[in-house]
Amino acid sequence: MTRRAVITGIGVTAPGGVGTKAFWDLISSGTTATRTITHFDASKHRCQVAAECDFDPLVLGLTQQQVRRTDRVSQLAMVSALEAMADAGLDLDGRTAERTGVAIGSAVGGTTTMEQEYAVLSNSGTDWLVDPSFVVPHLYDYFLPSSIAAEVALTTGALGPATVVSTGCTSGIDSVGYAAELIRDGEADVMVTGATDAPISPITLTCFDVIKATSTRNDDPASACRPFDRTRNGLILGEGATVLVLEEYEHARRRGARIYAEVGGYASRCNAFHMTGLKPDGREMSEAINEAMTHARVVAQDIDYVNAHGSGTKQNDLHETAAVKRSLGEHAYRTPMSGIKSMVGHSLGAIGSIEIAACALAMRHGLVPPTANLHEPDPACDLDYVPLVAREKRLDAVLTVGSGFGGFQSAMVLTDVERDR
């Protein structure tokens, strides 16, 4: 019997509101959550805008001890995991716990607290010799990205395989793809999976300042990110997390679980070309798309919606437009496509899972989220990017793509579980 992986629970902590409902309300209304950075004084940075989460872990169910021992990146994941488990109506005990694994994606891990603790140890960089007695006792946990998966497992009670996937900006697709493969291979019946990142810190912002990848529209934060627009000039950082409960289809069906969608197909490629540069023909992303569609047993004409990477950089928008045309052919011009980073920013490793949640919710509600801030379409980006206002449409098969520095290209196809296979 072929084992199938389906989504039965969703938990989202994103800019603009905590929880899956707040997230869907934001992106379906075309509202942007980008603003001038409040986490620290960013006035000396090239880019001073980000999409921040208004997030209080204590109010959202974490204990003081959990907050003390974890970085914000883990806290975002833990809160999202609690919501996803409640949404799935799944209690882990006995054999179920032993057959439940964790796969979490993250690009930069506990960078925020590591930077803060170094500032304490070195008196903001003035002392070369540091005194370790001033450091918090949990610094080692901040240092290890694997602590994220460990904390999610501890929060949910999952006793199966646990791992962190770190492939930069495609981590959030790759972690869910890996989780689905474990279910199909019989290694687990349930996977708590997704991704998290909290990169809004001086060091991360500086990294993006150096390569000039971020927008400089500091005077207009709400419209700074403009995917596919002629006037776009860079991405906007974000933060957040999404955790999904994936189950083997028969396992979910036996307990009467609500199913959002099936993870029909997944694939990843690398262009082995340049750290930040992209080939204009989009071949590697197209190959990932083609392989994901093959796994999902769909053809180009079956794709009802494309969730774009849509970072708002000149190169990326042209690259993925070419990739979608290459894979979908003439059907690409008839397929709605949109980029939610225009509203919630680019949360690096987390965004791929946030966008998978957006796709599953779009399928459930029969509504394509819009691309905010798209007022002047780039003539070179000539597909249907659903500008400004959401569009009603039945969605049986949805494609989501991701592109990351280093040449990573990933694609996933979600399908309606009752779709004729």
Question: If you had to describe this structure to a student in words, what would you say it looks like?
Answer:
Strands 1, 2, 5, 6, 7, 9, 10, 11, 12, 15 and 16 form an eleven-stranded mixed sheet that branches. This protein is globular. It is built from 14 helices and 16 strands. The protein is an alpha/beta fold. The protein folds into two domains: 5-254, Peroxisomal Thiolase, Chain A, domain 1; 263-415, Thiolase/Chalcone synthase (Peroxisomal Thiolase, Chain A, domain 1). A hairpin with a 3-residue loop joins strand 15 (397-404) and strand 16 (408-415). 34% of the residues lie in helices and 19% in strands. 58% of the residues are buried.
Compact summary:
This protein is α/β, with parallel strands linked by helices. Helices cover 34% and strands 19% of the residues.
Question: What's the CATH C level of the largest domain?
Answer: Alpha Beta
Total helices: the number is 14
- The CATH architecture of the largest domain can be named as 3-Layer(aba) Sandwich
- The residue-averaged pLDDT reads 94
Instruction: Assess the beta-strand content as a share of residues.
Output: 15-25%
CATH homologous superfamily classification of the largest domain: Thiolase/Chalcone synthase
Beta strand count: 16
- Described by the principal axes of the CA atoms, the overall outline is globular
Q: Could you say how many structural domains there are in total?
A: 2
Return residue spans where pLDDT drops below 50 for at least 5 consecutive residues: none
